[in-house]
Amino acid sequence: MSLANELPVPRTATFATWLELTKPRIVSLVLFTGLPALLLAARGWPEPRVAWGALVGIALSAASAASFNHYFDRDIDALMRRTRTRPLPSGALPPVAAVALGLALGAMAMAVLVATTNVLAAGLALASILYYALFYTVWLKRRTPMNIVIGGGAGASAPLIAWAAVTGNVGLPAILLASIIFLWTPPHFWALSLYRRDDYERAGLPMLPVTHGEPETRRQILLYTIVLVGSTLAVAPLAGLGALYTVSAAGLGALFVLGAERLRRKPSVPNAQGLFRYSILYLFVLFLVMSVDALVTVLRARA
Questions:
Q1: pLDDT grade for 7, boundaries at 50, 70 and 90
Q2: pTM as predicted
Q3: Which CATH number covers residue 188?
Q4: For the residues 211-224, what does the mean pLDDT come to?
Q5: What is the structure's pLDDT at 301?
Q6: Cys-Cys with 165: which of 72, 117, 126, 150 at CB 3.0–4.6 Å?
Q7: In the predicted model, what is the mean pLDDT of the chain?
């Protein structure tokens, strides 16, 4: 039975429905990637006003971008099994709700960041909203198989915002942390697209498995994963991180590369799903260890 002939799942508007517009799981991961930048920039925990203001501002800006993403993607979301039960295609909320929420959250993000940090941090947050909502969602996603590669910058803004919030500028360590997220994005989403290829093809999206085939996608996943792991190791001496982070990054990266190579040699839905799920755990644990290492390094220096 085709998707067009399937009955839509009825939904009603609840608080959970509104919360879904903000993509809370993605927001929590984005927020977590900003934490080590705060610690590294401040050489410890920043002044509470700056720290919490930066974290709240990052969360609000990410949630704002997600709400706009729901609005602009509502037509293709209705065509994909993975997304057709989202608030807008399911009819639980009208499209204007996503726009109103995005504007409100964006305005709150700017107000919080300006009041508690500085204009540069607020400007970077605004740029991240526009990048994700307009440049990636409206233009890149529908026009080029490089959508995920270039669009990776949309999710890499948290370290830049956090560093700017503390220092008033964007330092090299912040750029290096952002580059990790940028390089992580393609293998993460390409793994998803391998076992959701029919969805993307039905929606007319030029994802790599659709335009270049699955073998090339698996090859690109492996190549990007290798470059990603190399970048995580290069960050250590340049950002002042120690052995805890370096050893952990090497171990986590080795598992990522092995998973990508397994997928290349033995194509299967379980292997693609496994790599996709591991990629989320990988980024979370990597930035957790990075945060712990930054704190340990500061405590040792002060001892």
A1: very low
A2: 0.92
A3: 1.10.600
A4: 97
A5: 65
A6: 117
A7: 93
**Quick check: is 7 in a domain?**
no
State the total domains in the chain: 1
What residues contact 134, with CB distance under 8 A and at least 6 apart? Answer: 68
Say if residue 178 is exposed, middle or buried (CB neighbours under 10 Å; 0-12, 13-18, 19+).
buried
Contacts of 70 (CB under 8 A, 6+ apart): 21, 77, 86, 87, 88, 98
Q: Is residue 5 one of the residues assigned to a domain?
A: no
Q: Is residue 211 part of a domain?
A: yes
Q: Which domain holds residue 221?
A: 14-302
Rg of the chain, C-alpha, whole Å: 20
CA distance 73 to 142: 10
Amino acid residing at 120: L
Task: Dig out the tokens for 63 from the structure.
Answer: 């949630």
Residue 4 forms part of a structural domain = no
pLDDT, position 4: 45
**Residue of 114, 86, 111, 116 lying closest to 98 (CA atoms):** 86
